[in-house]
Amino acid sequence: MLIRLATPQDEPAIAALCAAAFFNEHLFGVTIHPHRHAYPADKQIFWRQWLREDLSTPCARVIVSTTLENGQEIITGMATWQRQGSDPYAQAVKNEWINPGAFPPLESTHNRAMDPTRASILQDSEPYFKHFWNATTNGVPRLENWYLHLCCIHPSHQKRGYGQQLVSWGLERARNEGVHASVMASDGADAFYLRYGFDECVGNCCQGEGNPLGVAGVRGGDVLFMWAKTESKGTTETDLALS
């Protein structure tokens, strides 16, 4: 098992992996792509655009898990971790970013599997859940964190430890830098994240009157944190709202 940084050349394979892994997931599958059964290949358009944005974001690191099959490298899973905040560690991540350059045009951007009215549902819902990061816990602002933006394993390679390794990649960096880690979990994924290093759920991204995620009936969306550890033992957690 190998965990490595993704390259632009990996984009088609990662997009195919995400399309398979999230085919029936409630947000990316059922809600955003209600016509996926009629146009299953079109889901890859969404994921190729998503990945191009992640690979072009200085604070983001797209990583993949791989294995060898018949001497060929197979990408079994992927994760995007974003280093949020403005502290020196966050700035160093941005400074170390390598610009992938221009991507070739996609063969098509017409995604027939998607409901176009829900293409930006996550961005539209952000005002309802961004407050979960606008606090300070254990003396460290929650905005200083490694955020697990996306994580999935191909259905053919699940339950083999790849997910744990992809999650550990970001959690180890958060621990080394003394900052938090966070994730917005898919439906049913809370137990996995709590088992492998996250500490607690602080709320849900689908709640709030008028929240597009809630209006659409999206399942999942719990926000989980791994808290930064303070040097002094027995420190009591305090949450102070930022003005």
From TrEMBL:
<dbReference type="GO" id="GO:0016747">
    <property type="term" value="F:acyltransferase activity, transferring groups other than amino-acyl groups"/>
</dbReference>
<dbReference type="Pfam" id="PF00583">
    <property type="entry name" value="Acetyltransf_1"/>
</dbReference>
<dbReference type="InterPro" id="IPR016181">
    <property type="entry name" value="Acyl_CoA_acyltransferase"/>
</dbReference>
<dbReference type="InterPro" id="IPR000182">
    <property type="entry name" value="GNAT_dom"/>
</dbReference>
<dbReference type="InterPro" id="IPR052523">
    <property type="entry name" value="Trichothecene_AcTrans"/>
</dbReference>
<feature type="domain" description="N-acetyltransferase">
    <location>
        <begin position="65"/>
        <end position="231"/>
    </location>
</feature>
<protein>
    <submittedName>
        <fullName>Acyl-CoA N-acyltransferase</fullName>
    </submittedName>
</protein>
